[in-house]
Amino acid sequence: MDNIFLLKLILAFLTGGTWVLIATIIADKFGSKIGGLIAGLPSTLLFSLLFIGWAQTPAIAVKAASIVPIIGGINTLFLVIFSSKIKRGLLISLIYAFALWIILSFLAVILRFHNFNVILLGYVLMFSFSYYVFEFKLKIPSIAGKKIQYTRQQILLRGLLSGLIVSLSVLFGKIGGPTIGGMFGMFPAMFTSTLIITYLTHGPQFSSAIAKSSMISSISIVVYAVAVRHSYNSLGLVYGTVLATLVSFFSGYLIYKYVIKKVRYQKSFVIYGH
Hints:
Elements: H1 3-30, H2 32-40, H3 44-55, H4 58-65, H5 68-84, H6 90-111, H7 116-138, E1 142-143, H8 152-175, H9 177-184, H10 189-202, H11 204-217, H12 219-235, H13 237-258, E2 265-266
Parallel strand pairs: 1-2
């Protein structure tokens, strides 16, 4: 295992674990809207593209960013399936969601889309379908947060669980070969760990609300990929990353203010497991 990849694996564990830990604690306190917003912002993608540009070239990172909208579209469907099956239990909902994700990701890897306009169109169609199902079929409201007294063990477990899921997806992407590796490059590790933690902490209703907000917020991930396609070529790796991050996070703010904030709100929920 080369040193650069080992460093990437360690950073994936640390950044993934920290990001999900922050997202779930914020969700506990401020509710599913803010928690979903944080979970849906680019984090592992930011470091993944940065490492690709560093270890190889910015041009290759731009090429990798071009497929991100398809990844984003598949992940919105992952969240829909998870939420639609959540009443049957965490394990069942994850099995259904992963099954769909594996099939669609395999197709995406095999088909190897090259036309970016087609890729964007595919994302828009999948996102629109997912939003329609969340809003008009599942009718999932947002849920307010509630004060929780944490123990060190709870904080440590959250960080370890999420960091492990994120780093394992990076590892499988490395050792899985061209097809399996490409599939795991799409793996929704941040979403998975966030959904598991919120389900175990608050139950299925809150986890579904997080999934909905995360799905809407994940537009900022696609915005980041589009920004990288332009900023890496014109500004280089470091300044391009800074600009793309600022653009993406600003888009997240706009998404929250004009979309997520207006979603139906439920002011109370039952806390499970406490």
